[in-house]
Amino acid sequence: MNRRTFLSTGASAAALLLSRPAWCATQEDPKPADNEILAQTGARIEQHRKGEGIISVRNSRGKAVPGATIKVEQLRHDFLFGSNFFMFDRCGNPGLEQEYRQCFEALLNYCTLPFYWASFEHQRGKPDYDYMDRVAAWTAEHAITCKGHPLVWDHAAGTPAWLPHDAKEIEALSTGRVREIISRYRGRINIWDVVNEATHLADKPNQTTMADWARELGAVPYVARHLEAARAANPRATLLVNDYRIDPPYYRILESLRQGGASPFDCIGIQSHMHDGVWPLHKVWSTCDTYGKLGLPLHFTETTVVSGPRKGPGENWGETTPEGEERQAELTARFYTALFAHPAVQAITWWDFSDLGAWQRAPSGWLRADMSPKPAYDRLMALVKGDWWTKAQAATDAQGEGRVRAFYGTHRITIELPGGQILSRDVQWQRGQQNRFDFTA
């Protein structure tokens, strides 16, 4: 769902959001218990993720056909369930690579691809388009929507060693890279984390050439100039600002970017790495309420729950354990259920899909290093392709109509007429639309 659709259909959802930012809670305004939030998720999912549709069947003379059997089976979610896809062609073993891809495709419809400047263009003027072209081709073949991440970041990963120190040259190179990459992948990759983690520039910027320039420029103009370049490269692209900060400074940057007219970005990126403790659901819900007030879809862009112990700072992690995996599965299912129930959320991206090659070498994957699924994978499969997946049946009435509630997304409608004839068509079940589908026998 694009930004315009979200805005045009979000009035009822907006009415559910809190009247003030979440960080203003007081003792007189206690946070709801996690179990209270979970108890409401079923009704909220039914309200915000599903809609009623009418299937009409008439014969060639326009007369109603009663007694036809209607089956509605989901093919794809409108909601984006994803993960980074950084191990594509990098598993080091054909068997592991095959399992990695098969498990990914079976569960997810969305992936994040790596565009970190330092590694993507290790040598100036020689970006690694060959690798990204292969990934984009595979995802297109398997109907997986792609997002590029991140185009601009003041971290060492976003600052190639060859980057000059001249401010004007840095700006020309950085905005030029944004335009070039988005233009090149237009139609193949249409969602972008344009600027990553700009909020910290005011108080603790990274020690890089990129950070020196960005801090001197200021967070808001730094973000704005890159968003402007991205929009010019593909006016129809979905552009995100992404951050690990969810405190007031991030909110103020987003508000400042939107002053004086239309928003230069389309979605709000919220990171939720939870290596050292999982967010309580009242924090999840209040964060969604707070940022939902800005009237744009929320993308949880980097979500992590680990399944093994931390043994020290940094990359010092123990292996995944059976007990840790069960805990990861339970907490992940709760987190996803709360987000799927919130009307402001449009996408969730896991970080990383497998323990093999995971960030910080943490046991964060839904797959183990040998690509065998953990309980978290099975739990998410049971939700995404089970509880939250339409398999409905109805019959046409005297007016030749049948009614079905379905999750928003792509569905296959199959109709068996009283005489045994079969009609079938794939359709889009859309939020805010009438969702009426007419068949002629």
Describe the overall structure.
Helices cover 35% and strands 23% of the residues. The chain has 441 residues and is α/β, with parallel strands linked by helices. The protein has a single domain, classed as Alpha-Beta Barrel (TIM Barrel), CATH 3.20.20. The model is unreliable at 1-30 (pLDDT under 50). Helix 3 (34-48) crosses helix 12 and helix 12 packs parallel to helix 13 (375-387). It has an eight-stranded parallel β-barrel, surrounded by four helices. Strands 12-2-14-15 form a four-stranded antiparallel beta sheet, with no helix packed on it. The protein has a three-stranded mixed beta sheet with strand order 13-1-16. It has 13 helices and 16 strands. It is globular and about 75 Å long.
List the helices and strands and how they pair.
Elements: H1 3-9, H2 11-14, H3 34-48, E1 50-58, E2 69-77, E3 80-84, H4 94-107, E4 110-114, H5 117-120, H6 129-141, E5 145-149, E6 152-153, H7 167-184, E7 191-196, H8 209-217, H9 219-233, E8 238-243, H10 248-257, E9 267-274, H11 281-292, E10 298-305, H12 322-341, E11 345-350, H13 375-387, E12 391-395, E13 401-407, E14 409-416, E15 422-429, E16 436-440
Parallel strand pairs: 1-16, 3-4, 3-11, 4-5, 5-7, 6-7, 7-8, 8-9, 9-10, 10-11
Antiparallel strand pairs: 1-13, 2-12, 2-14, 14-15
Helix pairs in contact: 3-12, 7-9, 9-10, 11-12, 12-13
What is the total domain count? 1
CATH topology label: TIM Barrel
Portion in strands: 15-25%
SS-based class: alpha/beta
The rounded distance between the terminal residues' Cα atoms is 32 Å
Helix and strand string, N-terminal first?
HHHEEEHEHHEEHEHHEHEHEHEHEEEEE
